[in-house]
Give the backbone structure.
Amino acid sequence: MIEIKHLCKDFTLADGSKFRALDDVNLDIGDGEIFGIIGLSGAGKSTLVRCMNLLERPTSGQVLLDGKDLTAMRPKELRQARKGMSMIFQGFNLLMQRTALENICFPLELGGLRGEAAWRKKRAKELLEIVGLPDKADAYPSQLSGGQKQRVAIARALASDPKVLLCDEATSALDPTTTQSILALLKQLNRDLGVTVVVITHEMRVVQQICGRVAILDGGVIQESGDVADIFSNPRTEAGRRLVMPEGKKIHSLPANRQVRLTFNGLSAGEPVISTLAVEQGIKVNIITADTHSIGDETFGEMVLGLPEDETDAARALIYLRDVPGVTVEEVTDYVQ
Ligand SMILES: Nc1ncnc2c1ncn2[C@@H]1O[C@H](COP(=O)(O)OP(=O)(O)O)[C@@H](O)[C@H]1O
Ligand SMILES: [Mg+2]
């Protein structure tokens, strides 16, 4: 659906020098995906999303939408193509003097989606219905909560029947519960309307919850990309680890006993490995540290265990643990936390 090829973006600074905000970015986002782009503040996320719809012209490289190169289009052709891509923002960007309904009608009035006023109103009402606000047609933005404003902004974004919805920090101004409801809505739109969703965020939980694949952006460079479960359980780059693991981690030495690190890589959630070891094998291990989380119904993360002093028990525990599907076992002498 969206192919980004060798995209670079330089900004010219006040002193005339150049700053490279994006450096050789390559991405391939498929039709119907929910794709995440995650990075810390200043990583270049907003610049990348603005280059995707050519709000910002790339310095070099190509952006293909449905196989057509946006960077090579004439202005009229580009305006047309852009209707296939809509955007929502952290700050909602609603017109304060217009009601919810009028905000949604706005893109329909502009640029070739004219139609009759009555038709526009009907369409806007349908869209309000889709985003779960059928009774807010006449409310002004100041009368709506943050979550409701974002719903109106989503309805407005959908007015042009886009194939792609670009979300730049769309939930970053919302509380956790409202964030959940907006993410659920995005998921629903993806499923029911087949719209491809690109989620740009600094919040890893957002990506974890709705994205299938993710790219990690750091310093204008895509550091790694792949399946969310894969990247989050086993980040391969320093930038990936910084984002995926909470900050301030230190290396701790372990006592002299034997220790093992279990890496959970898609263990079925609810599989009680440690208690089964105790109950079925009669072997008690000591949990030194655990940092696991669930994605869907699978468990990821790691746990460090102290093995029993008894050598036979330790060996039996190892044999048992090595046999659990979705778990990797290695002996360690230190751990990071
Ligand atoms: N118009 C601009 N002129 C100069 N530098 C810019 C401009 N827009 C963004 N930048 C710089 O590019 C980098 C990436 O910015 P941005 O894309 O907004 O990051 P993010 O959205 O990931 O926080 C930052 O260092 C920012 O200061
Ligand atoms: Mg940004």
